[in-house]
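Let's study a protein:

___
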Amino acid sequence: MNIFEKVKEVEEYIINCRRDLHQIPEIGLDLPQTSTYVASQLKDMGIGIKEGVGVSGVVGLIKGKQDGKTIALRADMDGLAIKEETGLPFASTNGNMHACGHDGHTAILLGVAKVLSENKDKIKGNVKLIFQPAEEGPGGAKPMIEEGALENPKVDAILGLHIGSLIEGEKHGLVMVSYGNMMACLDSFRVKLVGKGCHGAYPETGVDPITMAGYFLTNLQTIVSREISPTDPSVVTVGKILGGTAYNIIPGSVEIEGTVRAVDQNVREKIAKRIENIARGISETMRGSYEFDYTFGYPPLVNDENFTKAFVESAKHIIPKEDIMVMKKPVMGGEDMAYFLREVPGTFFFLNNPKAIDGKFYPHHNSKFDINEAMLSRGAALIIQAALDYLG
């Protein structure tokens, strides 16, 4: 079939879906309106679905005319707890916002589903449609996998995308791919340094956890600068410190929270271990104690090299080869698509399509973030081409 013609036929449908979804952003695992909308669209297409997967995930299955492999196509559906300030006529008014492009991801996959379901007689194998909640947290991919999203039939490969303001200054419609490690893990930690509170005029009568915290913060940054190879990207960031109630009182404890990003699993585990070692060493040296919690969140996102090479070749049938950029280094953001890619080979790609608000481009997670809807059809065409080529 002529993919360009088929996608052009559903372009208006994709844009309308995006605008419908944009008005009802929901957060986390519980997306009642969003998942109902998606399920209703798939039912209207005659696609068999399973609802409530991983709380509110939706899984659809398009069976081809002939037996063959199964490819999964994934879109995340959740929004963010941000009050929208775009001024768009279809802006959200419920206090949440699609400030990361997930409404576009879902709309693209609905467009893909419409084209493929209307042409299932031309498909060899199966296409599984995975509409996932909670990418922004606490994570919806893992519970969907645990509830069988990749089974019955068993998925052989998976494909997903992310749209939006990805590389400042790059052309609209640029596709970015990586042949391996593409995105970092998304971990968090909490350290409580425990001392002994006392009057600030008599520090010798207590144990000062604020001083302990100062030493801890200084030493924390030496993990990346002195213990990790400069060629292994990693970040340790402290974003929250709580301690003290008055200027002249030494508190009993200080709490510190932060995030760790690494693109290599071994580096990730080493950093986690060293954070606790530093907390223990400093607290013991300064006559205090500590508490430590480390949360291994989304793992590093690693694309399959062979599948990605095949995707690039498929993409060349849809867009000029100069519109495809191979990323020279990973980004330090996290994505729970990584869980799917740990289970089956596949790839995750970026599609650059920012749109200016009041003459200015805004990044993801900003109250004025918007996307260029004209590029949604390009995303749909890329996915359709890659899926059909994979299934042969």
